[in-house]
Write a structure and sequence with these properties.
By secondary structure, this protein is an all-beta fold. Helix content is 0%, strand content 56%. The radius of gyration is 12 Å and the shape is elongated. It starts with 5 loop residues before the first strand and ends in a 6-residue tail after the last strand.
Length: 70
């Protein structure tokens, strides 16, 4: 997470015995690098002011600009 970024962890549930759960983040501003983990590809969601992303097993960088654009 970048130095002026704002990210809210809305939901995190994880069961280590089955590698299942759910992660929901809200990125409101700044720069963030994200990499999915061992949960199912449908377990991750990132919300921004401009879009909602469903992740399918990847690594990426997101930049939410002031004013809400991504």
């Amino acid at each position: 997470i970048g130095s002026w970024a704002s990210v809210v962890l809305d939901k995190f549930i994880y069961d280590a015995s089955s590698n299942s759960g759910q992660l929901v983040l809200k990125a409101t501003k700044g720069l963030m690098k994200f990499r999915t983990g061992s949960m199912s590809s449908r377990s991750y969601r990132i919300d921004t002011p401009a879009a909602t992303m469903g992740l399918r097993g990847t690594e990426f960088v997101i930049h939410v600009y002031e004013g809400g654009g991504t």
